[in-house]
Amino acid sequence: MSLRSLLEPVYERMLERECAVVPRHIAIIQDGNRRYARARGAGTALGHRAGADTTERLLEWACDLGIEHITLYAFSTENFSRGPDELDELFRLFREKLLAVITDERVHRNRIRVRVVGDRALLPPDLRAAIESAEASTAGYSRFHLNVALAYGGRNEIVSAARRILGEVAAGRVRPDEITPALVDENLGEGSPLPPVDLIIRTGNEYRTSNFLPWQANGNECAVYFCAPYWPQFRRIDLLRAVRIYRQRVEAA
Question: Does residue 79 have an active-site annotation?
C-alpha cells in the first residue's frame, strides 16, 4: 500500500471538517472526457462513459454533503460541431442514462428531481422522449435537484428570455417598468427557474466558464474552482476542495 493511499483518507476527513458550510447550487463543467480517452489510446466513447460513471458518483457525494442543486454542463450548442459518430455516441449515452433514471433506486431514495435545461428542440426525437420520461418520473421530488444542460448556451438562454418578455410587453400583459431581474429569472429556460449558482467547478485544467449559466452565476458573483483532473478522474477530494473555496469566499464576504 502506497503512502498516498494511506494519507488520502486522512486528508479527506480533514477536508470534510472544513466544509461545514456547503453551497446550495453547484454548476459543473465536465471537461476532459475526450482527452482522458486519448491518453489511454481509446476512442471518445470510452471517455464519455467514464465521465458518466463519475457523474453517478458525484450525485452520491452531493447528497451526502446536502448540496441541493447540481447543474451539469453535459452538451453545449457549440458541441454540435463535433463529428457525426461522436454525436451519435453522446446522444445514445444521454438517452441511456436518462431512461435509467426511471428505475434508479438511488434517485428515488434520495428524491432527486431530474430536469434538462437547454434548447431540446435541437435534440433527436428519441432523446427528447427520454428527457420527458425522466422528468415525469421525478416530477414530484424536491429534496435534491439534478439539472442537465443539453444543447445549452447561456447567451441564447438570455436572448430567448428577452424575446418572451418582449412578447408579453407587446401583448400588453407586462409594462416596461415591470421588467425586473425576477421577471428575467422567470423567463429563463423551461419551467421553474434555476436558483442562483454559488459555485462553478471546471475540470480538465481549463480556466474559463464557457458561456455556462452567465445570468445565474455571474449575476450572483459565485465562487469558481478550476482543477486539473479530467472529469473521469474527478474525486470526492476534488469536490471537497471546491466546497472549501466556497466556504472561504462566504467567510470573507
Answer: yes
Of 31, 104, 198, 238, the catalytic one is 31
As a whole number of angstroms, the distance between CA 252 and CA 166 comes to: 39
Strand partners, 56: none
Residue 110 designated active-site: no
In-domain check, residue 158 = no
Residue 229: give the domain boundaries: 25-153+196-252
What is the mean predicted confidence (pLDDT) over 180-209?
Answer: 89
Q: Three-state SS for 199?
A: strand
Strands 144-152 and 199-202, sheet pairing:
unpaired
CA distance 117 to 153: 10
Domain count, the chain: 1
State the Cα–Cα distance between residues 245 and 223, nearest whole angstrom: 7
Which among 79, 110, 156, 220 is annotated as catalytic?
79
Whether residue 183 is contained in a domain is answered as: no
Q: What is the pTM of this model?
A: 0.92
CATH code of the domain in which 120 resides = 3.40.1180.10
In terms of phi and psi (left: phi > 0; alpha: psi -120 to 50; beta: otherwise), the region of 33 is alpha
What would the pLDDT profile of 118-160 be if each residue is shown by its tens digit?
Answer: 999 999 999 999 999 999 999 999 999 999 999 999 999 999 9
Strand ranges of the sheet holding 223-226, from the earlier edge strand across to the other edge: 112-117, 144-152, 69-76, 25-29, 199-202, 223-226
Q: Tell me if 138 is assigned to some domain.
A: yes
